[in-house]
Write a structure and sequence with these properties.
The complex is a heterodimer of chains A (about 80) and B (about 375).
Chain A lengths: L4 E8 L4 E6 L2 E6 L11 E5 L2 E5 L2 H14 L10
Antiparallel strand pairs in A: 1-2, 1-4, 2-3, 4-5
Chain B lengths: L9 H14 L5 E7 H10 L1 H4 L4 E8 L1 H4 L2 H11 L4 E5 L13 H6 L4 E3 L3 H10 L4 E8 L4 H13 L5 E8 L1 H10 L7 E5 H7 L6 H6 L3 E4 L3 H16 L5 E3 L11 H10 E8 L3 E10 L8 H4 L16 H5 L31 H8 L11
Parallel strand pairs in B: 1-2, 1-7, 3-4, 3-5, 5-6, 7-8, 8-9
Antiparallel strand pairs in B: 6-11, 10-11
Helix pairs in contact in B: 1-12, 2-16, 7-8, 8-13
Classes of the chains: A alpha+beta (about 80), B alpha/beta (about 375).
């Protein structure tokens, strides 16, 4: 039930409905629960509503933290 | 897919597992993942089988379909079979057994039931079918409640007289309090629900360390998210810390989403709530405010709705929902009770611990982490 998937905002209409690209599929998504969303933003989509903007800088921080807490051994290939 | 694939690299997962093994506390760690979406992700990736001995997942009550009481299903069944009525609901709700059968069975008897993807689809059906009374059976935690509330606000804006909501909205913190106050509860730490926290904010979970001295890490839903969250909990234990930490930083802010909370609070107010398999938990649900009484199916159809239902064939569902027993401890698990013929709610939703274990843990199906 609490499943939410990331998607990228392609267009925003006058009725506060957006067209969002979710894994290549275009869906109409309501923006009534979020503020200040712009075209090209990534949002988390849940039951047809954008729930939150995905923060690119914070996403990178988690990846950095992951690598810092579980460091690669020397000689391992980078992915 | 961006923001998903980066968190599924099996080699990164292996490094995290190695690190968890190195830092694991000698006494072990019993971690409850609250959210059914996490339970599903854990079984799908086989994470429970990859963790070192002593570090265990306990599955929590975070599946809104599972905790919807039988009486609510009976009410929906009653309305689906009422002439001129149509019940719209999320797909997971169709097979949930009530004492009058499921919505799917009601449909087979000629009842009108329509699956919707979004609450706004239910509003749309009401708008385009003025001859029908559309009842939206709306369940959910704090994640879904704002979307369901928005449907009420939309229906009011459109002046729809033929739309109402049969709501069953539940809140996470009160049920966790009750779990922790129950003698014999053996939970050392929590993985917090990422999408619930997206709405309410990570600060909603400060009571866990402050009042109950249990650490919590709010997690994303990919395998690496979950393993990193376990590592963060293991590190807190090793360093003697106890705090709310957020692994799912890309979506969770301390205060959550002000706008979503405002919409939720405009239509709903906190009330006592019955949880299937658990009982009534004080102040753990959301009811529709008096101002929107016209859109409340419980008020609108009060004369025809059943007020209670016999909970039958539940086996040990309540103990499983509260993390006291694993699904395979139930004598009915996979024998009589299967996703095709569920006795209890944990086998219905794919986020129910029983259904997730049944689906991913047939002999020899343990999967490599990250797949």
């Amino acid at each position: 039930m609490c499943l939410a998937v990331p998607g990228q905002v392609l267009e925003i209409g006058e009725d506060n409905m957006a067209v969002v690209d979710i894994a290549g599929v275009r869906r109409r998504v309501c923006l009534d629960l979020v503020e200040d969303i712009a075209v090209e933003d990534y949002v988390l989509v849940h039951v047809g509503f954008a729930l939150q903007r995905i923060d690119a800088a914070e996403a990178q921080r988690t990846l950095d933290q992951l690598r810092e807490m579980a460091p690669r051994e020397s000689g391992e290939d980078s992915p | 897919m961006k923001y998903i694939d980066e968190y599924r690299d099996p080699r990164e997962g292996q490094r995290l597992l190695d690190e968890i093994r190195r830092s694991a506390p000698a006494g072990g760690l019993r971690i409850m993942e609250i959210c059914g979406g996490h339970t599903h992700a854990i079984y799908r990736a086989g994470l429970d089988q990859l963790l070192p001995e002593g570090i265990r997942f306990l599955h929590g009550p975070g599946c809104p379909v599972c905790v919807t009481p039988a009486v609510r299903i009976d009410q929906a069944v009653t309305l689906a079979q009422r002439p001129g009525c149509l019940v719209a609901t999320y797909g997971d709700m169709l097979r949930v057994p009530g004492s009058l059968g499921s919505l799917r069975a009601a449909q087979a008897r000629g009842g009108r039931v329509q699956i919707v993807y979004s609450s706004l689809d239910a509003v749309e059906i009401a708008k385009s079918h003025p001859d029908l009374e559309v009842v939206f059976l709306a369940v959910g935690f704090e994640t879904t409640a704002p979307a369901n509330a928005a449907a009420i606000l939309h229906a009011e804006e459109l002046g729809l007289g033929n739309f109402s909501v049969l709501g069953n909205h539940v809140l996470v913190p009160p049920v966790l309090r009750q779990l922790l106050e129950t003698p014999g509860t053996e939970i050392d730490a929590f993985i917090g629900p990422g999408h619930v926290a997206t709405v309410v904010g990570s600060d909603d979970y400060l009571f866990l360390p402050e009042e109950f001295h249990r650490p919590v890490v709010i997690s994303g839903f990919e395998p690496q998210d979950l393993l990193l969250s376990v590592l963060m909990l293991v590190r807190q234990a090793a360093e003697g810390r106890c705090a709310v930490e957020v692994e799912y930083r890309r979506a969770v802010r301390p205060q959550g989403s002000e706008k979503a909370l405002a919409v939720m609070r405009q239509a709903f107010e906190v009330q006592d709530q019955e949880w299937r398999g658990i009982g009534v938990v004080p102040q753990s649900g959301l009811g529709i405010r008096e101002r929107y009484a016209a859109f409340d199916a419980l008020r609108r159809y009060a004369d025809v709705l059943p007020e209670r239902a016999e909970e039958t064939g539940e086996y040990i569902c309540g103990a499983v929902l509260q993390g006291r027993l694993t699904p395979d401890a139930c004598p009915a698990f996979g024998v009589g009770c299967t996703p095709e013929h569920p006795f209890g709610p944990g086998m219905v939703s794919q986020e129910g611990a029983c259904a997730a274990l049944y689906r991913y843990r047939q002999p020899g199906t343990a999967q490599e982490v990250g797949k």
